[in-house]
Amino acid sequence: MTEEKKRKYKFDTLCLHAGHNVFETNSIVPPIYQSVAYPYESAEYAAKLYNYEIEGFTYGRMDNPTNDIFEKRLAALELTEKALLTSSGMSAEFMACVRLLEKGDEFITSGHTYGGTNQLFNSTFPKFGFVPKGVSNPEIIENWNELITDKTKFLFVETPSNPNLFIGDIEALSKLAKEKEVPLIVDNTIATPALQQPVKMGADIIVHSGTKYLSGNSTCISGVVAGSKEYIDDVKANEYRNIGPSISPFNSWLLLLGVETLSLRMRKHGENAQAVAEFLESHSKVVSVNYPGLKSHPQFELAKKQMKGSSALLSFVTKGELEDAKEVIDAFDLIIHAGHLGTSVSLATHPAFSTHQQLSQEEREAIGIPDTMIRLSIGLEDIDDLIEDIDQALKKIK
Ligand SMILES: Cc1ncc(COP(=O)(O)O)c(C=O)c1O
């Protein structure tokens, strides 16, 4: 069956079958093509391949048959024409943006983005002469509109955002982007396509850290850009080829294994996270909880409208001072303190002193990250064990 025909299948089926023709590979599991070069059947074939007249495999820095299976699968899940695997989420973001920008061009972001993304936008990109503009109060669409000029080349939103769970209105931003004839890029890492398909709401380009829920158990650093055939081919033929942020086929094979269970995992992650968020919200040692599945979340209704679940990233602010938050983190027995999220085991981090350390305290507070904030990435453990662990850790606060 062609890939085009397979698109009639529902999401859970695509997680298992999209991109892989079992008769072509003679294997029910996608094989790992551990090769950096591919034979060209004729001089004519090679010439066409290098001239982008036909699709095929040229050289391992540009393409690989195992990677190709995952790219087709992810494109099917994100409802885009094509996808491109990269070595990390950060390189996916770099690839997605750099193709759209020339020196002096501007782009607009919600400001609520992963710390590494903030650094890329505000520290690395200005070196190339690219001008980032962060929207204040990005829940107000007019605030985005006011920043758009004829130099604006795209809008970028991470939703839900890491670590403070800002929810960007994808439909409203897509509408604005279309009016202004610029693409909307959505970082869909936290929701994954199992919970949110931005293309359905009008988004043009999707980026992922595949390192998180897509692979699901912390075995590979990886990233993906998804979008139209024209755009992905253009990225691939230019910066991707010239810079070389390719992924190893072993890592894309791990992604293929992981994505098979994406829907199941996201369901259980979400159930656990909802229970933890409700427990934290009722806890006397907790000041506030950020989780889009709670009615207290300022964008609860929007999250319900554009997502099929609330994913499993949440953050909460403890009572007391910085030292109290540190004590809670150190007191976790089951939950592991590590700079990561979106994996099978539950993890805790302290954003002010890890991912967002490069920002000043004022800058952190301006984007809702106080020093007593703890971020939890809720895993697939038994919920009773998780709640018991969190409760005993919070008891450390006097
Ligand atoms: C939302 C989001 N986007 C992108 C990234 C970067 O991904 P990677 O670590 O795979 O480069 C992260 C990393 O935590 C993230 O949380």
Explain what this protein looks like in three dimensions.
The protein has 398 residues and is of the alpha/beta class. The protein has two domains: 257 residues, Aspartate Aminotransferase, domain 2, CATH 3.40.640.10; 132 residues, Alpha-Beta Complex (Aspartate Aminotransferase, domain 1). Helix content is 40%, strand content 14%. It is built from 17 helices and twelve strands. The strands form two sheets. A seven-stranded mixed sheet has the order 1-7-6-5-4-2-3, with helices on both faces. Helix 10 links the parallel strand 5 and strand 6. Helix 2 runs antiparallel to helix 5, helix 5 runs parallel beside helix 12 and helix 13 packs parallel to helix 17. The protein is globular, with a radius of gyration of 21 Å. The protein starts with a helix and ends with a helix. The model has no long low-confidence stretch (mean pLDDT 96). Bound molecules: pyridoxal-5'-phosphate. The site of pyridoxal-5'-phosphate has 15 residues, from helix 6 and helix 7.
